[in-house]
Every structure is written in structure tokens, then in C-alpha cells.
Specification:
Keywords: DNA-binding, Transcription, Transcription regulation. InterPro entries: ArsR-like_HTH, HTH_ArsR_DNA-bd_dom, HTH_MetalResp_TranReg, WH-like_DNA-bd_sf, WH_DNA-bd_sf. The chain is mainly α and about 130 residues long. It folds into 2 domains: about 35-90, Winged helix-like DNA-binding domain superfamily/Winged helix DNA-binding domain (Arc Repressor Mutant, subunit A, Orthogonal Bundle), CATH 1.10.10; about 95-125. It is built from 5 helices and 2 strands, in the order H-H-H-H-E-E-H. The protein has helices at about 20-30, 35-45, 50-60, 60-75, 95-110; strands spanning about 80-85, 85-90. A two-stranded antiparallel ribbon has the order 1-2. Strand 1 and strand 2 (about 85-90) form a beta hairpin.
């Protein structure tokens, strides 16, 4: 996916459907927008894991972990390979995913985690 920034025109590249690129980017961010899926991605950055290991680490039900992994797989972020009766899960594009997570952490640091206060997407404090 290539998203063009306004004024970024290259004569060697084919024109980009900006609406399609933005839609794909929004889908990517939604796939990482669930705290459990994001925790799985971060844990898989350490290496391959079985569902039972992720279940134990995250404290989630096996069915929940499997559903989140299916979502991440369908988005192209994780892959699995059989090992006996189980599957080993890993990141599909490890360097790019780690780069994205690092950029997100940098942005959160730069904004002082202001997104938490966002009335639309932030966390609502307990009342």
C-alpha cells in the first residue's frame, strides 16, 4: 500500500487511488485497535507462540485468542504453521510491524498520550 502525501508526485510511480489507500490504512489501524490484538502482536514480536501460550500470557479464553488471531491472519499481520496437533503463530511482516509499533510509541510520547483524553476514542474515566 502506498499512501501519497499532498504534493508528493513521482513520475515513475503509477497513480494511487487515494480513497482506496486511506481505506486500507484505516482497516489496518482498526485491526490493531483492539487492546487484546495489539498485545498479541507485541507478544508475537518475541517469536512464535501456540494459542495455549498466548492464552496463558494474556489471560484470555482460548476461543477469544483464536478469534483475534483469525482477525490478524485475515488482515495479513500473522501467519501460522502446523506443529503436531497445534499451530505456531508468528508475525507475517515482523520488521514493518515493529517499525509501526515503534512509530506509534514515538507519537504517543510526542503527544503526551493525549489520545486517551479524546472524547471520541479515548478512555472514559471511571465515575
Amino acid at each position: 500500500m502506498t499512501m501519497m502525501v499532498e504534493g508528493d508526485v513521482s513520475s515513475t510511480e503509477a497513480p494511487v487511488d487515494e480513497a482506496a489507500a486511506l481505506s486500507a490504512a484505516a482497516c489496518l489501524f482498526r485491526s490493531l485497535g483492539d487492546p487484546s490484538r495489539l498485545a498479541m502482536v507485541r507478544h508475537l514480536a518475541l517469536g512464535e507462540h501456540k494459542v495455549v501460550e498466548l492464552t496463558r500470557h494474556l489471560g484470555l479464553a482460548q476461543s477469544t485468542v483464536s478469534a483475534h488471531l483469525a482477525c490478524l491472519r485475515d488482515c495479513g499481520l500473522v501467519t501460522s504453521r502446523p506443529q503436531g496437533r497445534a499451530s505456531l503463530w508468528s508475525l507475517a511482516a515482523t520488521p514493518e510491524v515493529l517499525e509501526l509499533l515503534a512509530a506509534a510509541e514515538g507519537l504517543l510520547a510526542a503527544t503526551g498520550d493525549a489520545v486517551i483524553l479524546c472524547p471520541a476514542y479515548g478512555e472514559v474515566p471511571d465515575r
